[in-house]
Fold these 2 entries.
Entry 1:
Amino acid sequence: MNGAPAILAGRGGLFGALSDTFWRHPRLLLFLMLTPPLLWLGIIYLGSLFALLAQSFFSIDEFSGMVRREFTLKTYGELLSPSNLDIIIRTVVMAALVTAACIVIAFPVAYFAARYARGRWKAVFYLGVMLPLWSSYLVKVYAWKLILAKEGIVGWALGKLHLTWLLDAWLALPVVGGPSLSVSTTGTFIVFVYVWLPFMILPMQAALERVPGSMLEASADLGASPRQTFRTVLVPLALPGIVAGSIFTFSLTLGDYIIPQIIGNSARYIGMAVYAQQGTAGNIPLAAAFTVVPIAIMGLYLWMAKRAGAFDAL
Amino acid sequence: MRSDRGNRAPIGVKVAAAAALLFLHLPILLIFVYAFTTEDKSFVWPPPGFTTQWFAVAWNRPDVWEALTLSVQVASISTLIALILGTLCAAAVSQTRFFGREVVSLLVILPIALPGIITGVALRSAFNLADIPFSFWTIVLGHATFCVVVVYNNAIARFRRTSASLIEASMDLGADGFQTFRHVILPNIGTALVAGGMLAFALSFDEVIVTTFTAGQQATLPIWMLEELVRPRQRPVTNVVAMVVVIVTFLPILAAYTLTRDGDQIAGSGK
């Protein structure tokens, strides 16, 4: 190999030259790779997001119904009017209850899948959560419309069990009741829990997978009752997963407007208020101010979770 | 090795876990039963009788076909855009360290982390401000934006597992950058891209919240379903369409699962 040059000649052809250039200037390749996605997300997504947030500082002229493009906090003042505050509180309470119910229902599934399921059963549990997670949102809502309808399967089953009086008593209650389950707050709640449950199971299972079984045994060996082990060992270790899951369930409930519209009474939620304000009412500033509420709540929630150390273990 | 391998789960945990899984699946199975019911005015249970006539009725409905065609077209183009943007982004973030890497991954995840209604209203008001008329392309614009994250999540997980020495070896053996991409990188990340693409397709095919804001007069299949839910016209046709949608979305998810099963990542965890 005595004739081989120390530095190879450049490759011929357009592609060869390009390849050499990228090798010599890795930053150029990085720049070329990042430009399309960043332009897309930066301009289309962030651009419209900031344009929307900016509009929340405009106000609507009461007489002409036109948007007045001057800086004002008037729209945010409107947000705090009793009826709008009512919508915000109702949505936040619903989101909190849905999150709590999801935690309770998700825990056994996540715990079983993480600690006991092996081999084939692991796959069954994984797909058993994935398929409902990915199957059509509207079909799921529609299925519950069939189930909760007055003549539907729940009413039929309770009738067979001679428990119709129980359903009637529940529906006669204020706030949670209504003419039938499909037009009551109870129905809205059930469907929210159903639709967001897989979003809680997956991160919870991921967190529980990382808890060594020996730690639970050590706790038992040291004399803790199962209840104590659960409270002082398992829950603190599973907390990052619970927080991650609750971010999903909370955020998704705050922004949803289809479920309460299809299954629920006429009580309004933040999502429906945004939809109505930007659509029929044509009040973009107020719609924009309403969207700031979930963003602010989620920001606060993430900040509190971070302070509580929920992300340290992730 | 874990010492709990032979352990039995407490009966309470078993029952609760099984009940929760049933809770997740029974409502979807119920759709299949209702697709065959003879009752066409109410949601009465149990169905008074069974028939397959509604499949023929749904088959002959032009509005269903139009919505289905539009949904497939939108999902295909959005998936293509998401595949290109998501792969580029994942390659850049995983292969190199640069200033602002975390910001880029946050930016990709943001469209799916914030409630869909925020994305929807933001895009709608931006289209209005910029005087862009609502069309097929405004729907695609919205869908591609939130589909990027699914491809990105799948691709980045695979990139992290692909050893950098493979690429170096290819270069040492005289392949140029394009040959390395074609013969080394692509075969390695191929199945992850197909899985990400399928999930992106399923996500776009099913999306309704953003679409209600970015669609003009066109109706994708979910929009069609939403209209039927708000103002029912022919309930049995809705039942049949719902069943078909369940089957159509299950297939890509099962396929994506099989393609990434032996991987270290969860195909859909980023939804």
Entry 2:
Amino acid sequence: MRSISPEAIVGSRITNQSLRRWLHSLPGVDKVGLEARAASLGTRSIKTASKAWALDAAIKMMDLTTLEGMDTPERVKSLCLKALTPDPTDLSTPRPAAICVYGDMVKYAKATLKDSGVYVAAVATAFPSGRASLRVKLEDTKDAVRAGADEIDMVIDRGAFLAGEYLEVYKQIVAVKEACKRNDGSYAHLKVILETGELQTYDNIRRASYLAMLAGGDFIKTSTGKVTVNATIPITMLMLQAVRDWYEETGELIGVKPAGGIRTAKDAIKYLVVVRETAGETWLNPDLFRFGASSLLNDVLMQRQKLKTGHYSGPDYVTVD
Amino acid sequence: MFEYSPAPESRSLVSFETSYGHFIGGKFTKPSNLYKTINPATEEVLAEISHGTDKDVDAAVKAARHAYEKVWSKLPGSERGKYLYRIARIIQERGRELAVAETLNNGKPIKETRDFDIPTVAAWFFYYAGWADKLDYAGLGANPKAHGVAAQVIPWNFPLMMLAWKVAPALAAGNTVVLKPAESTPLTALLFADICQQAELPEGVVNIITGYGDTGAALVKHPDVNKVAFTGSTDVGRVIAKAVAGSDKKVTLELGGKAANIVFDDAPLDQAVEGIINGIFFNQGHVCCAGSRLLVQESIQDEFLKKLKRRMEQLRVGDPMDKNTDIGAINSKAQLEKIDALVRQGVAEGGELWAPQCELPRNGFWFRPSLITGVSPANTVAREEIFGPVLSVMTFRTPAEAVTKANNTPFGLSAGIWTEKGSRILKLADQLNAGVVWANTFNQFDPTSPFGGFKESGYGREGGRHGLLAYLKGGN
């Protein structure tokens, strides 16, 4: 898998102390400067052909999500059908990258999506709080993988992270990664949710990003969507800087997924601008950048219709899911 | 590929007259003695401008004197404040028009005129409008008096903003003004004359006289001028200081700079990169307080320069009217030649030049954002103000060495420190000979904060209470 060992990256045997030394040696983040840069990229003006490209890209990079206690097989099926035909009035509309559901809904999603190319992602590891024993978290993960999940969205143990128990967080991610292993030896793709709204400081977010990448996460994801502060542009920019620098150091390409609170096409385009100007074109790819969103798709579809026809349609002209 | 499509701001938001006279006594004079002002991004002629003679200068000073004696000095501060508030509001209302005009005449990107220049101009008028009826609290005792007629000569790098920095405090303090904009960028000053008419400012309180250096010289030498304020090059500043020596004119000079931006190994690196970029490439580097010398700690030099170059590759150079342009045109052919000559000298003296290979437009005046590495303090590019998008890179090993190198310049306008260590910031800020020291940021301007330099960067302060005092008797 990876050509460079965690020990080589950290420069020592992996202990809580060596992880602490390594994470705390990362350059600090200046809040004012980071947010100013994010705001300035927010003023980019994306028009005509570039807008059309961005809207399609946003759909292709979307994890269409439903994570509610009231989810039912019918609801999940309806969402999957939406993913297969996002806009019945325009069959050239691309499909989202994946459907994101709770573990027990994976089999229903799989039954509808089959081998359409739209992946099924399952949240696992006692999502969203992550407050369960490792045994339960691993079983949760294995269960989803057995049901056919292509991707696993796990949460880190924020309590352990904030208590400085970096080794514990690291070990859990490594164990979950192992639980993603299928019978044929392949692995479900692992997205590591940092829950940035609970880590609170940008320095913490940078450290958690590095810890997740070191432990073997394929993606680092901002949020569960279940806390007060979810994805923001500055946080996403910081995580994009982390994957960019990680790639330069190790040659490993890690993805980024902002999730929660991204509702409009305008917002999505701002994120794509940040991807382009922070990590670069390589990351403008569903393998390396995803949006976790539920209501975003319809706004993008409306904007897409507007661009094609020259006038706004309205919510009655896109399908509910 | 995610390439940004053109997103041009509308040219039709502003219309210029074919020719302009001077603005004297509340009216435009008949255009005469004309020269052309152009758009430096296209070399298109925008309008013809009058080149002011001694006679024109005399008429403008007379109008200002008359307005001072008969009207402005007799108005209560609260009334002067009302005019200033009105001007500030009109500037906001006409913000897009002014931004487009500034971009067309100066070459700087619309993003900057829209988001920085024009909002700062309005903020300056609002701030000093508030002072107009509170002069008793400026620190000079009750009823401080204005100087009388202020002669103000401003540069081409922030045409309307420099006008605001000069005109707003002068009027708030009760002076009347004669202002001469730079020869290459007179158009927003002439639009400002129109705004004065729209605000029904009493005739002669603001007079604008256009022309070249000789017009400015005639203005500052005029015997009936009480106060001289100049922003521009140190060479011209010297000439002005000589010209007014021996008279009782008060003088403020805001001149050149060669600021050091010091990056320590514990700095927030990504934000430091942004700050260095902003420090030297903002406004094409046509900034007196630009962070034109990068002092980077030797231990992180390679990593930091790699990040800096990668970021420079992202800079979008081109049509200033495009909303996505980061770096616009050099203001004039003469300035382009000066930058080019200094960079050539830098390379001849052993510096290594690097610039992203971005495409440049065919017409107009352009210079790629550039780095010169391997610079030593003895090199020309480490000592002379280039006033263009060129960063000279040097290294240091210890904080003491950083301070010594940063201070080793005839200038002393600004400096930047990048470190996560608060105690180091406080200590270095104390040791750096610069009028402004920014920590973990750069190029921040606020009307409440005084701005100005040490040594050859000039004397006097603009902005804040200090900037007001410069326009009151006993204030400087």
